[in-house]
Amino acid sequence: MIDFLPHDVNKQLVNLDLIVKSSRSVPEIPQILNRTVLLGGKRLRPTLCFLMGKILGVEPSRMAAFARAAEFTHSASLAHDDVLDNANQRRQRKTLNAETSNARAVLAGDMLLARVMVELSEEGNVDIIHDLALVVEDLVSGEWLQLDARGRIDVTWDHLLEVAQRKTASLMSWCCTVAARLSPVSTPELLEACRAFGKNLGIAFQMIDDIIDYEELGGKDYSKDFKEGLMNFVIADMLKNNPQLKVALANHLGQGFDDEPWARAQLEASKENIRVQSKMYLDMAEEGFETIKRFSNNDSVDCVQSIEGLLEFLRMRKL
Ligand code: GRG
User: Rounded to whole angstroms, how far apart are CA atoms 139 and 166?
Assistant: First the structure.
């Protein structure tokens, strides 16, 4: 995803060990995790950990355990999410639930979370563990709130924002606050700036994800959310600006409206509106990053540029 990473950060990412090991667990559980949900993906969360760590002067070798915890937590949530969505495919591979069963996928996700607890407790920073436990609460609550909205057309903008903040932004925010907590120049102001930066980045990321959901007509994942009975930012905007479409949209919720002529023009307009909204969140992230930059050291100019490059990349609606 980010092809403009400094050499040393790229090396940290390439060398990041994402194999789950446990001498205590039933051996099949790590084995199946290692060949399903732990493979592939953009590794955005570890990337954030490493970049923010270097910017804030954290010893590089300290960040790997937290980057691993971030990706494991993300992967555990994906394992459970695929059960809830009854999904067969993720990242062009069979999902964990499709490889085993729903019951075993839930258990394997739980095992990953247990590994996160074990490994992070070995790092000995209770505040960081406390923050991550709150993130797990957010992930669960976000998913719960999303379930409340499934099959409903009258979902409010605030509800979608709340879900995005909990499901997507909370973990990205944690990746940034870890660096603030470990930094030799840590202050409450820096911690808050990192929290806000990650939150705004995460909300923008979710909005762009929602736009991309409508990007390739004919692609197998086109309009995935709507076909699963879920409103997202794009469709909520479409409905707000075209209340006359309420009945048609309600009738298609759960099926999709791939090539329906009544939807095309309005859909494109709403994708553009959400792009503008996502830019507002990216602007807020950039503003917060100005504060973070004040705490950065001179050796990390390349990482500062990478974060700015990431924001620019997202402005171009790419993930
Ligand atoms: C067990 C921790 C845990 C949670 C259970 C199911 C659930 C509660 C939460 C689901 C949270 C979820 C799936 C959020 C989606 C966030 C999101 C935007 C995922 C896509 O992230 P990318 O694009 O994915 O970074 P890759 O594939 O690149 O890793």
Answer: 5
- Among 213, 11, 32, residue whose Cα is nearest residue 109: 32
| Ligand 1 nearest-atom number relative to CA 112 | 1
Of all protein residues, whose CA lies closest to atom 21 belonging to ligand 1? 168
Please name the residue whose Cα sits nearest to atom 2 of ligand 1.
77
- Give the 3-state secondary structure of 268-293: HHHHHHHHHHHHHHHHHHHHHHHHHH
Q: 76: Cβ below 6 Å to ligand 1? A: yes
Tell me the β-bridge partners of 90.
Answer: 93
Single-letter residue type at 229: G
Cβ atoms of 263 and 245 within 8 Å: the answer is: yes
**Measured distance CA(2)–CA(147) in Å, rounded:** 32
Report how far apart, in Å, the C-alpha atoms of 240 and of each of 34, 118, 234, 262 are.
43, 46, 10, 15
Residues 129/208, Cβ–Cβ less than 8 Å: no
Cβ 153 under 6 angstroms from ligand 1: no
Structure tokens at 13: 């990412």
Q: How far is the CA of 298 from the centre of ligand 1 (A)?
A: 34
The answer, yes or no, to whether residue 219 has pLDDT greater than 60, is no
Backbone angles phi, psi at 89, to 5 degrees: -130, 140
Q: What is the pLDDT of residues 182-195, one digit of tens each?
A: 999 999 999 999 99
Taking the C-alpha atoms of residue 315 and residue 207, their distance in angstroms, rounded to an integer, is: 11
The secondary structure of 214-245 as a DSSP string is TS-TTSTTTTHHHHTT---HHHHHHHHH-GGG
Average pLDDT along the chain: 94
SS3 category, 19: coil
pLDDT digits (tens, 9 = 90+) for 90-117: 999 999 999 999 999 999 999 999 999 9
Query: What are the structure tokens assigned to 97, written together?
Result: 């639930």
